[in-house]
Amino acid sequence: MTTPAREAFDEALKHERQGDQEAALSAYLNALEADPDDIEIAYRTATALLRAGYLEEAASQLRRIVFVEPDHLQARANLGNCQLLLDDLGNAESNFEEVLAASPDNHNALYGLATVRLRQDKTQSALAPAERLMALLPENAPTLTLYAQITAKDPQASRAAAAYHKALGLDPSYVPALTGLSELLIRRKRYDEALTYADKALKLSPDSADLHKLVAEAHFAAGNLDFAKSAYWAALTRATDDKTTILTSLSVVCRKLGDGEAALVHAHRAFEKAPDWKDAGNALGAALKALGHPKDARAVLTATAQSKPLDEALTTRIGRLAAEIRLAASSAPGQDTHDDPAEQIGNPTRSPDGPGNS
User: Fold this and answer.
1) What is the pLDDT of residue 94?
2) On the CB side of 320, how many CA atoms lie within 13 Å of its CA?
3) In terms of DSSP H, where are the helices of the chain?
4) DSSP for 1-29?
5) DSSP state of 53
6) CA 95 to chain centre
7) How far is CA 290 from CA 14, 106, 149, 258, 348, in A?
């Protein structure tokens, strides 16, 4: 390690000890620039990049390290973590397996391999590394939660429930355990308990669209449609990526509440985003039927069932109808204006934070 690299490296370590991750990353990058061939600097820099969310940059450094030193197990395990986060599941699985072939008790690789296989819906093969990790870390909330997520698909799921409860006994604020247990209780039709855990999770992460959606699903399953609508709306306003499933669910709730116009607008937006998704097509057809357009509804539902696109004339008619509803809503007295009026259709009068934040 050259003298300039050593000085920058020591500075990075100091910042890391002080908890200043941003300054540490900057210093690591300076050290790497001063001595790009030093493996320790490269590994520390890659790890700092991974923690900061620079996944592609971290993966690039880690690939370089394992090319030069194939037996660098820490780098290979972290490369697997990068690939997992980048949804490169095949390569992540391979790297975790290589680490475990050399070090069967590597915690990082066991957790990563079980997670990859769970994401691939290979629950049986996910169970072995999860159980091994449980034996090594029996009092660890993330490990117990991962085991619960894998066993939650069992018909009875008693192992999953026990693991979730144990995880929450160790860390009552561990959101993945709260979320997983709530989802499990919804499937068991224990809606009040499910809402208790979902609300706890939401209070810890109030800006999470997924948690608002979970609260909405629990209310919907329990038949609390007004609360479900409010919570779905809160999820919609917070979602930063694909809103299709939320829009579809919101359409269904609005239709069941008798607001066919809102149901149509939300279903139409979902259908525009995912015309091949059957749930969106079915929601659109049901909304058209509720609004008194049975022929168009039947055409949409038939096309959806047969996985065929809508004809151009039908698409135009539905689009025009949705636009008319949006225009009327945006110009109505007291209507809260918005860049996209569709997002105002069916907006509940209560706070968009929904029941979970009350």
Assistant:
1) 95
2) 7
3) 3-17, 21-34, 39-52, 55-68, 73-85, 89-102, 107-119, 123-136, 141-151, 158-170, 175-187, 191-204, 209-222, 225-238, 244-256, 260-273, 278-290, 294-305, 312-331
4) --HHHHHHHHHHHHHHHTT-HHHHHHHHH
5) T
6) 24
7) 65, 57, 38, 8, 20
What does the pLDDT read at residue 207? Answer: 93
Q: What DSSP designation does 239 have? A: -
Residues belonging to the chain:
358
DSSP notation for 70-126: TT-HHHHHHHHHHHHHTT-HHHHHHHHHHHHHH-TT-HHHHHHHHHHHHHTT-HHHH
pTM of the shown model: 0.81
Block mean pLDDT (10 aa), the chain, length 358: 77 82 85 86 91 92 93 95 94 96 96 96 93 96 96 86 96 96 94 95 94 95 94 92 92 95 94 94 96 95 94 94 87 46 48 38
> Cα–Cα–Cα angle for 218, 220, 223, nearest 5°?
110
